[in-house]
Structures are given as C-alpha cells and as structure tokens.
C-alpha cells in the first residue's frame, strides 16, 4: 500500500488544529511515497517592506512538512536556489524585488523554474512573475488588469475556487474570505512562447478605492497556475499567508509547486 505524503498529512493537521477555518481535509490527501520535507526558499531583503516572510516562516515548518529558509538577492545571484524545491516571492513591491535581484538574479530565478523548480508569487511576487512589466520575470502568461488603479485599497474580500482550484488547493471548501492589499488583478496575456494559465480562484467581491472603478475587480483571477519549462508556477493575488489565512491554500500551493506528488 502506498503511503500518504508526510507533507499532506501535516497540512491536514494544520486544518485540524486551527490554522484555517476548514475542519477537515482528509479527502485532499493523494497516495505517494514522498516523505521528504519540501525545501522552501523565501525571498527577502532589508527594507523590503514585507511581513510575508515572517508569516510564512511560522507555518511552512518541519512540523507541517516544509523546511524554509530566508534567501537574499545576493544568495540567489550566487546560485543558492539549486538547494531548494520552491522559491516564494512574497508581498511588498514587485518592482523593488526585481531591482534588488538585478538582471542576474532574475535570470537565476527563471533558470531555476525552467529546470524544474517551483515558483510561488504572493501579491508583489505575482506582479513579479507576470509578463506585464519590463522588470517582470515572465514566468506566467498573465498581465495586470486596470493597472492605472493598482493602489485600489486593502480589505477583506471573498474568493471562489474553481473546480481545478478545489482539486489543487482544497476539496473541503469552495468560498473563502481573504485579505487583499493591492494585489494584481490577473488576466491572460498572449505571449506566444508561454502556455496559458489555469484559473484556480476568482474574486467574488472587490475593493474599489482611490478612484478605482466599481466592478472592475469582480471575476478577475485571484489564484492562477501554469508551467514554465519543467517547473511549476502558482500566483496568489491576495494574502492567504496572513494571520487569518486561509494558510492552507498557500501550503497546498507550495506543495503543488514542489512537484512532489
């Protein structure tokens, strides 16, 4: 009999012990021989303005099947990603993240993913992953809708998982309340050298402050996934890693990106 993956058993424990609002996730556990922890690199640097690394380090731990380390732009440029399964680029500023990486670091990230590594972008990290800006990594075929009103505000919003999202992220629940803080409103781009992405969640409600038009955010894509070369890419526009989560969505996304099935 094949063994349940240690990582997914521990994610179930996250749910049971109250990390998220879901009460059970037993039906989300596939069969696998994988028992090694997922090695996670979390990108950060001084004055990044991000609390994401702190939140991520609290639950992407060995107890739950992850081994997480903060990595700097210098370390990425020096080849540190070869020691990891997944890179997380969290919130903050996508352009600042790109600037700190420099072209050499951005090339190192693309090479890591192209060769089979996983990329998880959260808010700023999703902007960074997109094909929209000159400084973007271009690892997922997505652009930003209503870019002129990117600073549309911060608040709790509601998202709905698509059938694919429920398969990948949570079979136990379809709708979630989640914190939004100026993340990208993701829509498909048409770059011919990249595959299209799959939608895992859409926005049901919106934030429309600072001159942002009403109804522009509803039905845009909150969570998406794709491939880049041999690697996997998943992007979260909102902040599932924050105190009120749902952290299980990030944990499941990281596990999927690691290609550990």
UniProtKB/TrEMBL annotation:
Gene3D superfamilies: 3.40.50.880. Keywords: Signal. Residues 1-26 form the signal peptide. Pfam families: BPL_N. Residues 54-142, 153-244 form the Biotin-protein ligase N-terminal domain. It comes from the Bacteria. The keyword Transmembrane helix does not apply. This is Biotin-protein ligase N-terminal domain-containing protein. It comes from Gimesia aquarii. The lineage of its organism: Bacteria, Pseudomonadati, Planctomycetota, Planctomycetia, Planctomycetales.
